[in-house]
């Protein structure tokens, strides 16, 4: 992903709000849902920046613009996961899973363990 598409903390928060709102939100919706929100003008500015970076598009609804992500949540999540792996775990999924499982209170049910095992087998075979 090119550098200009990287998100600041506030931009990530706004994207989270839009995804949580069902994939569409106006500046008013974002403002109402953010904890510790900036000014209305700042929210509009962030939405414009996110649109310029290619993360959002908008449509007009009455007097407001309604914003929606340009990529599905799953694809955005995969990209974010890749960045977390690269930045914090040297690109290693094994290190990331080990860190999660080492957390106090981390639990892995028998069903989750089975699903993970199945996913690992599929990945080894190159299928989804």
Could you state the order of secondary-structure elements as H and E? Answer: HEHHEEHHH
Name the average pLDDT: 89
Query: Helices and strands: which structural class?
Result: mainly alpha
Main sheet characteristics:
3 strands, antiparallel
What's the gyration radius in Å?
18 Å
Walk me through the topology.
Blueprint: H1 9-20, E1 25-26, H2 27-33, H3 40-52, E2 56-61, E3 64-69, H4 73-88, H5 93-102, H6 110-125
Helix pairs in contact: 2-3
Account of the protein in words:
With 128 residues, the protein is mainly α. 58% of the residues lie in helices and 11% in strands. The protein contains six helices and three strands; from the N terminus they run H-E-H-H-E-E-H-H-H. The chain has helices at residues 9-20, 27-33, 40-52, 73-88, 93-102, 110-125, and strands spanning 25-26, 56-61, 64-69. A three-stranded antiparallel sheet has the order 1-3-2. The protein is elongated, with a radius of gyration of 18 Å. The mean pLDDT is 89.
In short:
The protein has helices at residues 9-20, 27-33, 40-52, 73-88, 93-102, 110-125, and strands at 25-26, 56-61, 64-69.
């Amino acid at each position: 992903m090119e550098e200009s598409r990287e998100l600041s903390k506030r931009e990530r928060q706004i994207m989270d709000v839009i995804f949580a709102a069902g994939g569409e939100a106006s500046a008013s919706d974002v403002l109402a849902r953010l904890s510790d929100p900036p000014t209305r003008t700042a929210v509009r500015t962030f939405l414009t920046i996110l649109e310029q970076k290619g993360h959002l598009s908008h449509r007009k609804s009455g007097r407001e613009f309604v914003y929606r992500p340009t990529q599905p949540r799953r694809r955005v999540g995969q990209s974010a996961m890749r960045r977390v792996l690269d930045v914090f775990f040297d690109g290693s999924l094994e290190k990331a899973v080990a860190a999660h499982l080492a957390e106090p209170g981390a639990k892995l049910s028998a069903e989750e363990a089975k699903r993970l095992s199945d996913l690992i087998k599929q990945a080894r075979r190159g299928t989804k």
